[in-house]
Please model this.
Amino acid sequence: KAGVTQTPRYLIKTRGQQVTLSCSPISGHRSVSWYQQTPGQGLQFLFEYFSETQRNKGNFPGRFSGRQFSNSRSEMNVSTLELGDSALYLCASSQLAGRDRASDTQYFGPGTRLTVL
Amino acid sequence: AQSVAQPEDQVNVAEGNPLTVKCTYSVSGNPYLFWYVQYPNRGLQFLLKYITGDNLVKGSYGFEAEFNKSQTSFHLKKPSALVSDSALYFCAVRDSILTYNQAGTALIFGKGTTLSVSS
Model:
């Protein structure tokens, strides 16, 4: 079974631009979560989607948004990019949705390395 | 609030020796605990998890972890380290109560521990 795929793998943008990152979960997985990884802040939760609805959101400004499609694929968007948005953005998928997903394993993609100049 | 601590930024061990990467956690309800490994320029790879039951959990690549409720710890171990085990290791937790209430489904990660295995 193919793993989580993320595109693009690398991206360079300038301040003020916007960017869209894409994530395809493992086949059959219904839940998709996004995380930001930086050297200073470590791994931080951005948001989680299942059934095309945002279920939880981390402590990030409104410039960070996402969505999920009916085939469980997900995109995240960052508008008005700032230098501090430079990070590795990781997508993770898990099979379960609803309350049972507490014990479910999240499987991560390789990430998208975003550099903001 | 949920939290995870990995008290060591770096662990150095010689190949063939046992290794331990430490993790302690804080949650309100029952913890669901996970270990992941990250190689350079890669995403996170799942190693093992503790949900309930036996306190000793066995995972991928010969790794195991011991859940200790009284010490709120979940240390990662391997009896004999390999040079190829050198990587960044993350411990993560979910709180059963927060997750049930749909309030905390995110994995909360520690800062990570760099494991360096020398030949």
